[in-house]
Amino acid sequence: MREKHCIFPGSFNPFTLGHRHLIEKALERFEGVTVAVAAETYKDEMLAPEIRAEIARKSLADLPAVDVQYFEGMLTDFLKTNDCFDIVRGYRDDRDFEYEKELERIYVSMDRRVNFTLIRSELCDISSERVRNAVKCGESADGLVSEAVVSDIVKLYGNK
C-alpha cells in the first residue's frame, strides 16, 4: 500500500528532468506529491519563485497526482500548513547523500514528525546548474528539461 502524500522541496532553478525522475520514483511510494518551491534560498541567480513554480507546473502537467506550490519562510512551517511531514529528497552521489542526511537531522530536530525519504537519482548528469550553464553558452537544453519548457528556459536563462 502506498503512503498518502509527500512534499518534494527545493529551489528548482530551473526544474529539470532529474527532478521529474525523482517525482516519478516518489509516486511509486506515495499517492501524491507536492513540489514545494522555496522562495528564499542562499543561491545566486534565482528567478522569482512564481516563475520557477510555473516552469515546474508545465514540466509536470501530465502527472495529475502532483501539485506545485511556492512557499516563503521555513519548510517546517510549510509542512505544518499542509499537515504533511513526509519529505522526499534526491541525491546523485555520496556528497549529495551526506548533505541530505545533514538536512534530515536539522529538520527532524525542528519537528519530530518529519520523515525523510531519500531517492538516488539515475540521472546523475542532470542538474539545474548544468542547465543554466548550457543555456548561457548557447547549448541545447533538450534532454535536460521537459520539452514543454525548453523555449521558456532559453528565454529566462540564456545570455545572462
Number of discrete helical segments: 6
Biggest sheet statistics: 3 strands, parallel
Helices and strands, in order, run as: EHEHEHEHEHH
How much strand content do the residues show? 15-25%
Mean pLDDT: 93
Task: Round the Cα radius of gyration to an integer and report it.
Answer: 15 Å
Helix vs. strand class: alpha/beta
Distance between the first and last residues' Cα: 47 Å
Overall, the morphology is: globular
Spatial strand arrangement across the major sheet: 1-2-3
The poorly predicted ranges are none
Helix content: 25-40%
Number of strands: 5
Question: What does this protein look like?
Answer:
- With 160 residues, the protein is an alpha/beta fold.
- Helices cover 39% and strands 22% of the residues.
- A 3-stranded parallel beta sheet has the order 1-2-3. Strands 4-5 form a two-stranded parallel ribbon.
- Strand 2 (30-38), helix 2 (49-59) and strand 3 (66-71) form a beta-alpha-beta unit.
- The mean pLDDT is 93.
Topology:
Layout lengths: L2 E8 L6 H10 L3 E9 L10 H11 L6 E6 L3 H8 L3 E6 L2 H17 L4 E6 L7 H9 L13 H8 L3
Parallel strand pairs: 1-2, 2-3, 4-5
Task: Describe this protein with a few key phrases.
160 residues, alpha/beta, 6 helices, 22% strand
What's this, in brief?
This protein is an alpha/beta fold. The chain has six helices and five strands. The protein has helices spanning about 15-25, 50-60, 75-80, 95-110, 130-135, 150-155, and strands at about 5-10, 30-40, 65-70, 85-90, 115-120.
